[in-house]
Design brief:
By secondary structure, this protein is α/β, with parallel strands linked by helices. It folds into two domains: 203 residues, D-Maltodextrin-Binding Protein, domain 2; 97 residues, Periplasmic binding protein-like II (D-Maltodextrin-Binding Protein, domain 2), CATH 3.40.190.10. The chain is 41% helix and 15% strand. It has 14 helices and 14 strands. The strands form five sheets. A five-stranded mixed sheet has the order 10-9-11-8-12, with helices on both faces. Strands 4-1-5 form a three-stranded parallel sheet, with helices on both faces. The longest helix is centred in the first third of the chain and has 19 residues. It is globular.
Length: 343
C-alpha cells in the first residue's frame, strides 16, 4: 500500500472517529434515570443552607439545588428528584451500590476516594476548610490551645483524619467523641458532652446560627486545618453520566460569568454572542454531545438559576447564614470558580 493510500485511509478513519464523537455514547445511568423518571440524589441528613427538609418534607439548600439543576437539564423540570439523606459513612456505599445516581453531599475530593473507592468527582461547587466551634465561655482563642480537649467528630470523613493529623503534628492530645448522625453529633456538643465540634467551617457556622441556643455564645476559631473542595460524586465506569454531571455544574458557573440568570435567560436567547448561543442551544451541538436536549443549559438556568443565584438564595448575605462568597466567587472577582469552555 502506498504512502498516499495510507494517508487517505487515515483521513477516512479520522472523519469516522469524529462523526462518532459528535454524540455521547449512551450510558446506563442516564437510561436508568430516564426510566425511573427521576434522579436519585444522595444529600446530607441535614445541614442548614445546604440540605434540609421542611415540616412538609420538602428539601431545599445549596446541595439540593445542584440536584435540581441536574433534573432540569435532563427532564426540563427541576422537581424530578428523589432525595436520599445519607450520613458520611453511608454515602459512598449508597453510590457504589447504585442506590443513588449522584452524591451532592458536601463531599471532599481526595486521591484515595477518587481511586480506591471507584468514584469520579465533578467540578468543585464549594471551597471550604475544616475548623473548630467552641463555646466562648471556655476562653479559647486558638486551636493551639485545645490540648486535651474532648472533640465531637463524625466518622468516615476527612474531618476525622484531618483532626488526627493536626493534633499529631502539633504534639497535642485530644479525646474523640465519634457520632455518625449529624443531629446527634450537634446535640452532644450543645449539651456539653464535648468541648469542641469540628467540621467544615461552613457547616459549623450554619450549625452555630441555626441550632445553637444562643449563637453569640459560640465562636469558630480562626485556624483552618485543611482544604475541603466539596464536589458532586458519581461512579467510575459511566463516562456519559460523568460528563453530564460535570457540565451541568460548569454551566451554572459559566452562566454567572456571562451574566445569564433565571430572569434574563429568555432575552439572552436573542444574543449575538456565539458562546451564549452555543450554551443556550440556539446553535445546536452541545446537547447532542451530552446526549441531552439542546436546551439542557437553558432549562437549568431558567428553572434553578446560575451559580451566584444558588449561592445567594441558600447561603448569601440575605439569608440567616450570611456567607461571603470568598473563594467561591468567580475567578474574575478573585475567587476560584472557573468553568471550562462550553464549545
Amino acid at each position: 500500500m502506498t504512502t498516499k493510500q495510507l494517508g487517505a485511509m487515515s483521513l477516512v478513519a479520522a472523519a469516522f472517529a469524529a462523526a462518532l464523537g459528535g454524540a455521547a455514547q449512551a450510558g446506563p445511568t442516564l437510561d436508568k434515570v430516564k426510566q425511573a423518571g427521576q434522579v436519585s440524589c444522595g444529600v446530607p441528613t441535614g445541614i442548614a443552607g445546604f440540605a434540609a427538609p421542611d415540616s412538609q418534607g420538602r428539601w431545599s439548600g445549596f446541595d439540593v439545588d445542584v440536584c435540581r439543576a441536574l433534573s432540569a437539564a435532563i427532564f426540563g423540570a427541576a422537581d424530578k428528584v428523589n432525595y436520599v439523606p445519607l450520613t458520611a459513612q453511608q454515602r459512598f456505599t449508597a453510590l457504589q451500590s447504585g442506590e443513588v445516581d449522584v452524591l451532592s453531599n458536601n463531599t471532599t475530593d481526595t486521591l484515595q476516594r477518587d481511586t480506591e473507592l471507584g468514584l469520579n468527582f465533578a467540578p468543585v461547587v464549594f471551597y471550604d476548610g475544616q475548623g473548630f466551634l467552641v463555646a466562648k465561655k471556655l476562653g479559647v482563642k486558638s486551636a493551639k490551645e485545645l490540648n486535651g480537649a474532648t472533640i465531637c467528630v463524625s466518622p468516615g470523613t476527612t474531618t476525622e483524619l484531618n483532626l488526627a493529623d493536626y493534633f499529631r503534628s502539633n504534639k497535642m492530645d485530644f479525646k474523640p467523641v465519634v457520632i455518625e448522625k449529624a443531629d446527634e453529633l450537634r446535640a452532644a456538643f450543645f449539651s456539653g458532652r464535648c468541648d469542641v465540634l469540628t467540621g467544615d467551617s461552613s457547616a459549623l457556622n450554619a450549625t452555630r446560627l441555626a441550632q445553637a441556643p444562643n449563637p453569640d455564645d459560640y465562636v469558630i476559631l480562626p485556624e483552618r486545618i485543611s482544604k475541603e473542595p466539596l464536589a458532586p460524586v458519581v461512579r467510575h465506569g459511566d463516562d456519559q453520566w460523568d460528563d453530564i454531571v460535570r457540565w451541568v455544574v460548569y454551566a451554572l458557573i459559566e452562566a454567572e460569568e456571562k451574566g445569564i440568570n433565571s430572569k434574563n435567560v429568555d432575552d439572552k436567547l436573542k444574543s449575538d454572542d456565539p458562546g451564549i448561543k452555543r450554551m443556550l442551544g440556539v446553535t445546536p451541538g452541545m446537547g447532542k454531545a451530552l446526549g441531552l436536549d439542546e436546551k439542557w443549559a437553558y432549562n437549568e438556568i431558567k428553572l434553578v438559576g446560575n451559580y451566584g443565584e444558588i449561592f445567594d438564595r441558600n447561603l448569601g448575605k440575605d439569608t440567616e447564614l450570611k456567607f461571603e462568597r470568598g473563594l467561591n466567587d468567580l475567578w474574575t472577582h478573585g475567587g476560584l470558580m472557573y468553568a471550562m469552555p462550553i464549545r
